[in-house]
Each structure stands twice: as C-alpha cells, then as structure tokens.
Specification:
Length: 159
C-alpha cells in the first residue's frame, strides 16, 4: 500500500497520468470514493497517460465508455448498476477478455466483477482544504505491487 495527499485536482490528474504511463494490456483499476471525491479527475489523468485523445467523460448512464489510446481503454462506472446480473447482461466478461486497460469507478459495489488481481485506489476528501484528497493505492497481486512501487518512486515528491 502507498498513499499520498494531493492538494489540487491538477495534482490528482498528474498522479493519474503517471499511473497511466505504467499500465499495460489487461490491467484493471478500481476507483473507490464518495461522490465528488475525484475519481473521474483521476481517470482523466490515467487516460492522458495512456495516450487517449479527446475528453474522457463519466460513463454514469452508459456504464462503459471505450477509448482508443496506446491500447484500448474501457472506463466503467458501476454506480447506477443494480446487480451483477446487469453487468453480465452488458457483456462484462467480454470486456475482461478483450485485454485493454479497464478503469472502474465504484468497483467496490460489485467485487465479484473484479479479477483476483487488480489495483484498488481509494480517493477521499481531506480536511481542512476542500481540494485536498488522500489517495491510497492498494495493490492486489505482485504485478500491481510493482506498479505501485514504481509510481511511488516517480511521484513520491508530490507527497
């Protein structure tokens, strides 16, 4: 586990961008945090690090948005999903098999939808600065431990 405090949305996005540069085909990232915590801001940075052109928007009503970068990027939002069965109905397993990078907001709502190894990122607002966020990286598996270590080495100066 590694954590740091981001003092602005721009820094949150920069950390996401650094993570995006480290992600490869098949990686899965679950983002957890309250509404307005900065999950989508973080995803914007990850997408930039993955060389996605254009603006990444929250897929709240579509469940999954697809983007083209240096590899396929699938941005999912489970907030409005009512059941795991609904995810199965949209072909969730097919997305996992397509071997892109999968970024999931509210992934904690359906842990059964996540592979055994993934990277969980918790983003929480901190006091007293409205724009400050505590970002905690919790790797689940050796591959993600290595990614978090490299990210900490690159972004440790921000902490």
């Amino acid at each position: 586990m590694w954590e740091l405090i981001s003092r602005s949305p721009r820094v949150t996005e920069m950390i996401g961008e650094e993570l995006g540069r480290l992600l490869t085909l098949g990686d899965v990232v679950s983002l957890v945090g309250d509404l307005g915590a900065g999950k989508t801001v973080f995803v914007h940075g990850v997408a930039r690090g993955l060389d996605v052109d254009g603006t990444v928007s929250s897929p709240s009503f579509m469940i999954i948005q697809e983007y083209v970068g240096r590899c396929p990027v699938f941005h999912a939002d489970f907030y409005r999903v009512r059941s795991y069965r609904e995810l199965e109905g949209i072909g969730w397993d097919d997305y996992l098999k397509r071997r892109g990078v999968i970024l999931i907001e509210w992934g904690n709502l359906f842990p059964e939808a996540l592979p055994s190894e993934f990277l969980q990122i918790n983003i929480n607002q901190t006091e007293p600065i409205d724009t400050a966020r505590l970002i905690r990286f919790e790797p689940r598996g050796g591959h993600y431990e290595a990614i978090v270590k490299e990210l900490a080495d690159k972004c440790g100066y921000l902490a």
